Amino acid sequence: MLRDLGVSETVLETPDLSKHLIKNHDFKKFDSVLDLVGNSTVVDSLQLVRRDGRVCLAGWLGGLDPIKGPAGPDESRGFNPLLQMASGVHLSFFGSFVFGTEEFPVSDVPLRSIMLKVAEGKIDARPWRVFAFEDIHAAHQAMENGDSNGKMVVTVV
């Protein structure tokens, strides 16, 4: 699905991903990284993009703990862009929780365009599995076990 949208390469997150990729001498830094894990991985994501590359922090699946500072005695002081970002790398943040506010009205979301792409088959929006509300425990178990493979829907009737 991502390749159909123009993505040339995808890599699944793993601890210290940049170190694993950089070990491979053929590794070329990415143009862009979409970080859905969050504060616990964003500093590593910043190491994966080329000069003038972009990292968009758009999730917090890894929790909301503060971004850690550089390893060593100053780690607890927090994120330090001067020490933890390469010059020329762009970092942006996108949080869906701001939708509907005065600054980010829902009308700015291209829902019509997205739905047309779904209808045309350009975006596969099918959920991995649909659960009845009575089966919500099974949905949580699938999530916690890492068994899910995409979006899950719980119907409430």
UniProtKB/TrEMBL annotation:
<keyword id="KW-0521">NADP</keyword>
<keyword id="KW-0560">Oxidoreductase</keyword>
<dbReference type="Pfam" id="PF13602">
    <property type="entry name" value="ADH_zinc_N_2"/>
</dbReference>
<dbReference type="InterPro" id="IPR036291">
    <property type="entry name" value="NAD(P)-bd_dom_sf"/>
</dbReference>
<dbReference type="GO" id="GO:0016651">
    <property type="term" value="F:oxidoreductase activity, acting on NAD(P)H"/>
</dbReference>
<dbReference type="GO" id="GO:0070402">
    <property type="term" value="F:NADPH binding"/>
</dbReference>
<protein>
    <recommendedName>
        <fullName>Alcohol dehydrogenase-like C-terminal domain-containing protein</fullName>
    </recommendedName>
</protein>
